[in-house]
Sequence to fold (380 residues):
Amino acid sequence: MIYLDNSATTRPHPQVIETVRRAMENYYGNPSSLHHKGVEAENVLKQARKIAAEYLGCKEGEVIFTSGGTESNNTAIKGIAFQYQNRGKHIITTQVEHPAVYDVCKQLESLGFMVTYLPVDRDGRVSVEDVKCAMRPDTILVSVMHVNNELGTIQPIVEIGQWLKQYPKVLFHVDAVQAIGKVPIRIKDSGIDLLSVSAHKFYGPRGIGILYKREGLIIHPLLMGGGQEGGVRSGTENLPSIAGMAKAFRILEELGSVEGIRLQGLKQQLRDGIARIDGCLVNTPETGAAPHIMNLSVPGVKAEVLLHALEERGFLISTKSACSSKANEPSRVLTAIGIQRDCALSSLRISLGRENTAEDIKQFLAALQDCVIQLRSYMK
Fold:
């Protein structure tokens, strides 16, 4: 099988798996315990936090370990909303956010908060001018993702963050789950106050992530208890997964920018091949997009049918965000960029990873063409 669903989750690197195993076997003490096993575990925790901070370009105290992107997004958005609601109850986000941001905002609306969902252009990109126009005296938070999980579109995070610096009481949250390891970001230069990370998107374990929280920023904790993670996220730390995530960061550091360039080449090969298949439309913008995500539509062919036809030929892809792919509704993201319902219902997402090769793409394109021809013949 050729796996082309790396935006949903990646296959953990063998060295990550080994690191998790060793941590479970050797560092089973609670990092909060005072005996030597607890001290050993605490040292592993400190080392992992240092590695994560070095990769993200922040201070160790700004790294909060969570269970993943969803928790990081919830903690950031609700943490700001509940902490600063006396200052204002207005939040700005976009129409194309991941459900872990979009649905949180919808929930906050039911609790009396007001949310502006900014539109995007045909490429799925929000306008900085629209952000400026949406600002109100009671705005407390702007939340914009770095890389869209369905289209791969890169948002103007730096420009938004720089502009927001003139509003020190308006916090800036970035969902960077799809960006880490693919699209560089400099947290300190971008005016970011909170940033969400998920390890299983870059060959780390599932169930572990990070919320970067700018030093000095106070947010309302969602989980109360033993006061771990600076009191922001109580609960005994998932040490084996944290160690595995640190290893995944180390591997990203070793690879540098080479892998991103390689993925960009594969994506271009994919785009060129899709353009030669009659009836296939590419939805991902040609420029200003991450190197690993490609979204396409085959109007008149149901995405789920095409997905399973490709699976029978040995290719694993997805229809949209894995978190909402079982819902029989067109993608909210594709609808937001103006794609018609029928076309949106026929969309597929191919997401590339380290194990994919040019030969994989060649074989996939041949299978896609065969499947499209075959399925279209049934419609005549």
